[in-house]
Amino acid sequence: MKKGRVTIKDIARELNIAPSTVSRALNDHPAIKKETKEAVKALAEKLDYQPNLLALNLLQKKSNTIGVIVPEITGHFFSAIITGVQDVIVHSEYNIMICLSNESYEEELTIVKRLSKIQIDGVLVSPSSETKNFDHFKKLQKSGIPIVVFDRDCPGLEADKVLVDDYFGAFQAVEYLIGIGCNRIAHLGGPLNLSTTEHRLQGYLDALHKNKVAVNDQYVVHVSGFSHEEVELATKELLNNNELPDAIFAYSDNLAISAMHTAKELGLQIPGQISIVGFDDEPHSAFITPALSTVWQPVYSMGMLSARILLSHLKNPNTPPEYRKEVFKPELVIRASSKENKLVSED
Amino acid sequence: MKKGRVTIKDIARELNIAPSTVSRALNDHPAIKKETKEAVKALAEKLDYQPNLLALNLLQKKSNTIGVIVPEITGHFFSAIITGVQDVIVHSEYNIMICLSNESYEEELTIVKRLSKIQIDGVLVSPSSETKNFDHFKKLQKSGIPIVVFDRDCPGLEADKVLVDDYFGAFQAVEYLIGIGCNRIAHLGGPLNLSTTEHRLQGYLDALHKNKVAVNDQYVVHVSGFSHEEVELATKELLNNNELPDAIFAYSDNLAISAMHTAKELGLQIPGQISIVGFDDEPHSAFITPALSTVWQPVYSMGMLSARILLSHLKNPNTPPEYRKEVFKPELVIRASSKENKLVSED
DNA sequence: AAAGTGCATGCAAAGGTTTGCATTGCCAAA
DNA sequence: TTTGGCAATGCAAACCTTTGCATGCACTTT
């Protein structure tokens, strides 16, 4: 018995053969005699030999690990994406390292440095809401690490992208609100540098334009973070307009729910006086009262696809930089927080 | 310019000194002359030298990574714990690898094998609801890997534990229900092998005993998984009793919300006809209607403490096996889903 | 001048595995 | 018998860093 764990050398010594032969036998190298292979494998089994991946990593200059950078995981959205990623990666030889930026650019930088140090093999990323500059990701790419961006786009970064057609989702939602008779539709927008914020805003604006509903600047407010206080403040700003909006299209379900709460506190009837539509379709959105109308996104599938794309790059490291861009279609889900009751009070 | 990334040898060659000197200079070894250190550091900076952690891992026989095994992350509970863990670990030199068992014993085994292969340095674990046998964790410990168990206990496993006083929480909740006049209190219990299930059940039973409320076996049902269908079925079983319960104490908020939904579908008034109390205080529980009474747990702190305990073991690897057991006190949060309206209908 | 002291640095091994090339032994063809 | 070829295995380098011990040098002390 030796001290530490069993190595390939231990097996070699025991069998009076060279370590290289053991290695080849274990890996079913064709130049090794059948009996040798069997003997080696039997002894390896008996000694409970575990290959030392650390040594392999050094040799191959790769960590067999992929990093996933997300802003947070306490909401359903990113945790569901991660679950999708995990369910794909778990069937590969890769390990997965989840990193939280906490919506902070600084922390995102630190994470990227760390991942680069441990020689990460690939990265899945959804940038923080503070991130405007993507040079840290470009630097990763330059050192040969493939990157797949999901949900929140990084404009100017050439990489694989798995996105949602936020514009389409927002357009649908707002056109639906117009269709049920709303004409003072406010938008509670997300943090301004996010691509998702921008696209949802644009969808909102275009839906208004197309349907000849006047755009009122006072009906558009953006939060810069996701804390309850901030959202409450922004909502009050919307609701303190001299002309009360008759609908709020919110950037996300969480914003919508916060807004709903605030509206209730101000004594407003939902959807009687004001309709509310969110975005994300978080599971609990169906359970609040009134149940929240929202825009559903195929989160789990997005996670799986992102992971698959990254894996395919890792299998073929020499492929030219031909990036995929996959855009999922979201779907409007109508529930009780919005209601066709304005047509009457219209005229 | 060389091909790959800059190594310590490149710096040594450039400066006509030995690699070992470079290493020592970079690590501020006292035996190195000041000027040498400065020269080395300057060049390292200029060449953007990144130490190769893979080589270090091999040398030290450790991966500088700790594993976190959780059953799922789509709920708030585990994702908040993980956030706490992460916020502590991020300030250490360790990386963190999050693994999802999906409440499956099989997958948990696979994860443990994987972690062992990559020479993980320490593990934080909350076992799956299927896990009855903890030998896989014991095996890890035998190979010198410290384990900290959190939330869900592993009875028979000697390790550090960061738990919640589930018994106390359940006792408080049920005694409160009795206090507001309920005397047909049902329990919608969790999966049977979980320590949390057991302790919450015991708290429920003892609260009834202490207050001389009759225990009715038909009022206790356990789910074996957390799918909505299963919970619905279990709830219906409870509500189909010839004597309708006047309260349900549920194992978790998610179960409570599912049950609430089912009860509503059956036309029951909450809390008019039946009070409901959950466990966990998920953030959305405050937003559903009626807002859910529940038992709050200091999740984020639990995550942080678990991580700190593990780190302290990693700093002092030679400490004797003296395990800590930290038990957090949960707190009853009373909201609208339970109401003091039974005293009238009592007599 | 010889011996002693201490500082600054170099040498080489170690960690476990893979892999290109070399080597050995054996049999068949010339 | 020599040569060629093949099958099976061994050798040694490589991946990069750290670290115990040795070395070299200059200066002080006797």
TrEMBL record, chains A, B:
Residues 6-60 form the HTH lacI-type domain. InterPro entries: HTH_LacI, LacI/GalR-like_sensor, Lambda_DNA-bd_dom_sf, Peripla_BP_I. The keyword Transcription regulation applies. Keywords: DNA-binding, Transcription, Transcription regulation. CDD domains: HTH_LacI (cd01392), PBP1_LacI_sugar_binding-like (cd06267). GO terms for molecular function: DNA-binding transcription factor activity; transcription cis-regulatory region binding. The keyword Transcription regulation applies. This is LacI family transcriptional regulator. It comes from Arenibacter aquaticus.
